[in-house]
Specification:
The complex is a heterodimer of chains A (263) and B (258). Chain A is an alpha/beta fold and 263 residues long. Chain A has 8 helices and 10 strands. Chain B starts with a helix and ends in an 11-residue tail after the last helix. Classes of the chains: A alpha/beta (263), B mainly alpha (258).
Chain lengths: 263, 258
Amino acid sequence: MDSGPLVELRQVSLAYRVGKERMPALGDATMAIRKGEFIAVVGPSGCGKSTLMKLVTGLLPPSGGEVIVHGQKVKGPIKGVGMAFQNSTLMPWRTTLDNILLPLEVVSPHKQRFRAHRAEYVAKAEALLASVGLGGFGDKYPWQLSGGMQQRSNLCRALIHEPEILMLDEPFGALDAFTREELWGVMQKLWLERKFTAVLVTHDLREAVYLADTVYVMSRRPGRIVLTKTIDLPRPRTLESTFEPAFVDIVHELRERIHLEHA
Amino acid sequence: MNDTQRYWLGVAMPWLAMAIFLIVWQLACVVFQIPEIILPTPTRIFTVFIQRWDILLQFCLETLWTTLIGFFLAIGFGLLLGLAIGASPFIYAGLYPLLIAFNAVPKVAIVPILMIWLGVGALPAVITAFAISFFPIVVNVATGLATIEPEMRDVMRSLGASQWEILTKVGIPRAMPYLFASLKVAITLAFIGSVISETVGGNRGIGFLMLSAGARNDSATTFAGLFAIAIMGVLMYAVCALIEQRMTRWAFRGAVMT
């Protein structure tokens, strides 16, 4: 490895202020994410997984500790991040294509070039749509698409500006099991092609093991990292591999650790 | 009942309801022998409409103009204030109680003050129409802005969007359906405002016509004026509803895209 991790968390904690009380959401998270690594964070519900995401992107300042990206302490929202949430947050007044182009209208240096080079960007967006199996759907409005198609578009929007870091907050959580597993494949393919650094927050252990290089298990609120598990299963992983003993064993190990938290 | 009949019944219902209302009115006047000065019959009002259409039209147009000018002022001002209130919790905290207080003041009470300031003419009517109709616009636009999904905001912020970009790319488009919904309410209120002003003290418009007809005990003309206002109100409402559908088709999710 070259110059150390891309993202580093050092004893990061966060407490929300509710009235006069302080509600600890995250206690003492320490982790290091290599460039191009795919990590997943799993844990019981309400353990501060989503909080962790907001801390890494600088959307929330930590109460204690520090978040370091590119060797620099994070002080505000950092540049070069793509985000996808469970709720696809596509804008209903824009067509799918225009939704995907949105980051290019906002992120430098694209936004200065956007008007003059629109055709080039549109071609890029259409290629990306085609690569997730949505070729030709660009002129549809998001509400004319199924839930799975909306999440595919959502991934496209998160990736169009080629961010270094992709944040995924339960992006497949609201989908049915078949669609979800299909999208794991789509996600893995995108990652293998582009090798961005990805942080996936999920409560689906199979999803975490399928996609991630490293899985972090968090404790109950206030969340701490109680287990770090490296997944060295070969890539590309397939739905078949999720039934192989090596895969199943890892899922069981993670599940048992989380059950300890509920006990 | 099959689908075609169902459709035509739906189209006919408003007209049927109106016809029944007018027939009951007419019958009541005839059966109870109500004197015309108390309540003229619909047929009598209709006759006056035909006989005096040129005067009615002239006064209607005056009212329509003042109403529309006040209404457009209300859109401009309401949009700006609504955006400010929706975008900033501090402006919201500061101005909202004031707005409610202002809205609670009966606008008929400010007309005499306007007369003192501006004299008799179109201006007090324009300002009354404006003052009565901007409130729903402000509230709706502010609501549209304030209810942006936090995730949407996070997506924009993580892209490095400025507050201005969040406002123009998310806030304003999202507030549009709220704005257009409020316009339907605001236009009818604007009519109320301008007619109130014309009635309290004015020398023009349909309100003035009704007032002077009333002073001559000409009930039929007064009622013809009322009908004219109602017709203008419905027409303007329809225009606003049409614009709403055109501009914010996405908000209806294709439900009314016929």
